[in-house]
Each structure stands twice: as structure tokens, then as C-alpha cells.
Give the backbone structure.
Amino acid sequence: MWDILLQAAAAFVIGAAVGYGFATIVEALSRAFSKLWENLVIASQEIFGYLKEATKYYLALVAQFLDNNWSEIESYLQQEFGYRSEWLIGVFRDGLDILIAIADPKQEHKDPVVISITALDSKQQAEVQLPTNQNPIVTVLTV
């Protein structure tokens, strides 16, 4: 599973270099992941107030990554937590690395599954607003 996620992360990096056409990405997402993007943007705005276009684009790439890889991710999550229709999704920065934490909202005692998707380059680091793990962007994904 992890080698497929690493391949997807490489495609994610290439996509991040293209530009800020987040509307096109969001339109192509399935309904659940389009709603996830919307909720990530809302949660980010609550943290930062104003969001740069680069941040909206990057969050669209996060939603796209999850949408494209959800069947494999969900299979792994079901082994760890059992079947769920709702997941807590957290997105945050740890240095230059961007991490996605996925947790079962009903099992707070279990550690989340954390996926490292890519590191930001210096240009992206200046343009993309992401919080640290002390105050992550958190929302619910309903599948």
C-alpha cells in the first residue's frame, strides 16, 4: 500500500508545481471529497482569517490525493479501526513536510494514521498557509 501512496505523492508534487487552478480540481472530485475541500478551506479561514489562492489550491490537491487513493487508504483504516462512514481529517505542517492525520472520531484513545504527502519547496513554503501539529486544520470526511 505505501509504495502506491509514495507514487501518488510524487504525482502530487508535480501537480503542485502546475499553478493555482483549484476550481478545476475541485470540480473533478467526488462529492465527499469536494465537501472535504470546502470544509478544509473553512477550517483554514477560521485559523488564518484570509486564505491565499495557493493555500486553496494546495488543499484541493490534498482532497484530490485522498479521493484518488481512498479505496486503499480506507482498506487500511478498516483494518486499524473497523468500518466507519466518518473520519476526522487533520492537515498540518511539520517543518517542510505536510502530513494528513486520519482518525476515528469514536476511538479517541487510538493514535491516528498519519500520511506524509510531500515536502514544500521554498516558494510553496512562502505561499501556502498551513498550521503546525499544535493547531491543525481539522474537519470530518463522510464517505
Notes: Confidence is low (pLDDT under 50) at residues 13-18. The chain is about 50% helix and 20% strand. Residues 53-81 form the longest helix (29 residues).
